[in-house]
## 1
Amino acid sequence: MSSGAGRKGNVLSGLAVAAGCVLFLGGFVWGAVAYVPYTVPTSSMAPTVASGDRVLAERISGDEVRRGDVVVFEDTAWGDLPMVKRVVAVGGDTVGCCDGQGRLTIDGTPVAEPYVTEGERAAQEDFPATTVPEGMIFLLGDHRGDSVDSRNHLAESGGGAIPRDAVKGRVDATAWPLGSAGMLERPDGFAALPGGLSGPGPLRMLVFAVVAGAALILGGAAYGPVSGYARARRARETHNGVTHRRKGNVP
């Protein structure tokens, strides 16, 4: 390799390391700003997330919440700790359970809920149709047979709903344990209702930035040792070839 090519390679490897550092560190900083980790305290959201799972919740304002979102919220009427539940109805909706097939209804329309524990009805016991006040949301756990949620607060002011501004984040993914790690999908059952579903958060882009940054850093850092080894090998081969030719010329 010529000295010019070597210098060019060193420059490119340096640029790769610099770009990798920007992506890698930028991804982590962006993630720390956009997301908050939470530990799920109960099994009320099984099988979507289990008790003790570590989840990543995107920081959002209450007005960004849509039906089907799994949210982290705090409300003193529900307890002193952050809780994780699924939003099934928003202000103006009339939510009830159950229809003839055991499904939740929104404004009289049944909603498909594939995330509910297999074999469970949308609620173990029917509850009367309730209109959610404006600016509030109605929440249920996915494990309907083992969840304390809006059904248990129907007699309170707001009919079991909580204010939108009680929401601290929207769960985008399970991060731990690794066997359960993955993105949470938005449920299609609410897609046709007014407002539709929430859009995906930036988590996939953050993961891509971190992985791409790590690859650039490793690739750029490896250039020096690899090119040095290649030069040394070529030098040995050249030296051995010259020596061999000289020996072949001895009478």
Note: Helices lie at 3-34, 203-248.
## 2
Amino acid sequence: MVRQLRFNGTGSGGTGCPSVHEDAESGEVIVHGPPLTDPADIAQLQHLSEGEVAVVVPRELLVDWTPKDATRQARIIDLDEFENLFRTFKHSAWRLETRRRFASDEATDTYRQFIETGTADWDTEDPYCDLIRSQTAQGKRVERVRIVDSPPTTGQLYLLDNAKRNSGLGEDIRNLWRSDADQLQLPSEDFWLFDSRLAAKLRFDEDDNLVDVELITEPAEVVRYSVIRDAAWHHAVPYEEFAAKLNDSK
């Protein structure tokens, strides 16, 4: 079975070696770097078995990028506590959406309207709209990148229509083709990043219902999510441009 490797970070200043990866399933850590080649150095190593290779990495690489606590318990918050994060963030709230559908969307009147007419009559005065509008009015940034399949799923097209409403609230919404996201090695995780200091990973059941949220404050993990944000944001395009190109291709 192919490992699901996740890039944690590099201590090379950006050249990519040495680096640390983590097996997302087993938790095992993979380190690669320049090999130790001097026979006199190798002779000092204990328990180096046949086929094994010793690599040289700076100490700070392990300090900065290897998991700090393999037994860390996930901190799970309920949806009310999650909603409160949108009231308390100070500067920025950034979202990556990677899913093909959300069960909660499909239970709404607007979704039924969209299925029937190709668009929806969006309510801009509900509690979420009031909250986001009040935050962006203070100069706070609310941004998101939505990953889209080719061809887009019905749920993704629905959210592309929804972007008109959320943009009017002051959100900056951009889209990225899944093929481009795969090339960038973006993870299949839905999360919010608040003030570049904590991440909220959204957890769904097998029927695509949002169940709860994992709150992540471990510095190395927050940095990893920040790197994901920077890559996705750099390559994504404003939803208006994305929608126009999608319509032109039909």
Note: The first strand starts at residue 5 and ends at 10.
## 3
Amino acid sequence: MALAHHGLITAWEEVIAPALHTVGRKWAMEGEPYVGVEHLLSWHVSSAFRRLPTVPPRAGAPPTLLTCVADEHHTLPIEALAAALGQRGVPTRVFGAAMPAEALVGAVRRLGPAGVVLWAQARETADRALVTHLLGVGWGQRGARIRPAVHLAGPGWAGVGIPGATRLTGLRSAVEALAGRATG
């Protein structure tokens, strides 16, 4: 209902994310009974995102890869980002939770993405070495390699500055940055 009434970005920022934070705090304080509530709510939100209409991407446009860093299992924020970018015709490939670094590097080399978004919910999962490595990975012919933009998303990256990587803060600004790059 919130998605239809307010649109994806406003529904995420003003209804869904605050509800998830509340349930998460309740789980942290009161334990086990609330983990089921968090999982159920997450499943329904994820399902609703996948039902949203999308705009076909421009032919030949390189995708933006969206993934959680290794050891990170909170996927809803990148699912929200994928859905919002899909509504704007930006091609994405979502790798989901706990993407091993080697697999991500291989995907970058194979797919030649416009960008890579790395989600880290917690500071413990934010992997600076992976970011530094990705900033040096290119694709294409030797001598003409193209490097994807690397974007850091999620509270785990707060206060982490890595030269060459862009920090995305919030769904609205992330969509504006990534959709603008894809069409610009």
Note: The beta strands are 64-68, 92-96, 115-119, 149-153, 165-168.
